[in-house]
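Input record (one chain):
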Amino acid sequence: MTQAEATHVPVIVVGGGQAGLSTSYWLKQRGIEHLVFEKSYACHVWETARWDTFCLVTPNWQCDLPGHPYDGPDPDGFMKKDEIVAYVREFARKVAPPIREGVTVTRAARRPEGGFAVTTTDGLYSCDEIVVASGGYVDPVIPRMAEKLPSAVMQIQSEAYRNPAQLPEGAVLVVGSGQSGAQIAEDLHLAGRKVHLAVGPAPRCARFYRGRDVVAWLADMDYYKITVETHPLLEGVRDNTNHYVTGRDGGRDIDLRRFANDGMELYGALDDFVGGALTFRPGLKASLDAADRTYNSINAAIDKYIAENGVDAPPPSIYEPVWEPAQERLSLDLAGSGITSVVWCIGFTPNFRWLDAPVFNGAGRPVHKRGLTGVPGVSFIGLPWLNTWGSGRFGAVGADAAHIVEAIAARLAGADEGLLAAE
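The corresponding structure, as predicted from the sequence alone:
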């Protein structure tokens, strides 16, 4: 089939997760013909790339996909993995998108005559508008130093971790202390496994403070309405690491210092593997202290809000460290430690290599304003801090999708008016 024989559809959405389905929802509301391409199946990540005890870190009442707000029995709770899967499956059923599952988009490029040529594993297509909904967390990050580790040591990335039983007997090294790393380290720790944790610069926050979930306080303070353009860090906020906390067992803090008191071994960031020894960078104390400063600063902001608004709440408190590293260990003999497995939790990168359009900066990131790029017809949805903190989550992705679809509808209407005028 030649490109001239390609199937034309006004809008193509690449990615069938909650971002792509939210876009499809609003396109259907406006009666705009479109197709959604998904390389696996709709919202598969929640089922195939999360561990068994995974749960949301934000309360259920924040789940507000378009036409599908959370209406379960526990709005202040935190949905577990099977509940999340059921929630997104029901959303997909409601949306009933025109989706091509099991189809990968391998290339999309602008056509000289306008619009885009889209190559897929299901054939050739063309479109006037393309919405990139493949997300910001696609390719797992694993450092090249991993190649140095003995083959006898099992290595997996966080998306492949399911439960402690899948790992061989022995100690486990968890690399990274962001949301996934901290929660996986806790999962292993609670199962009685010996855990060594390489700690990074991720911040933390309290689960509950002064009688309420911290998320509820921040919502009252309009924090979730702050946009990239009004945030003090501006676009720099997109580089921020999410705070580690958990919704497990009804929700609680994750305090790495308490883990250390209970026998977990903490180190600075993993640096290399040389001569049979893992080496770590100095900075464990600095990372722990910085995380605690963030924890206390968020609570202090809540204290200020309570005082200024005369809210009746329990008294304030300040977190005091329950453990300090007496001396940072900068190396660890691998064989002597009994470590038999490594779980890499140092993040993901997006994959936009298939998109041939001048919408990226020197770092390979899309340049956009709330998902709309400088190239008419190319939009992004579902990225962290696309517009607000909730842009990559169930809470605000629907509003972002509505904004993008409004712009698409206006462009398509303009194109139609132009054709009518020409006639």
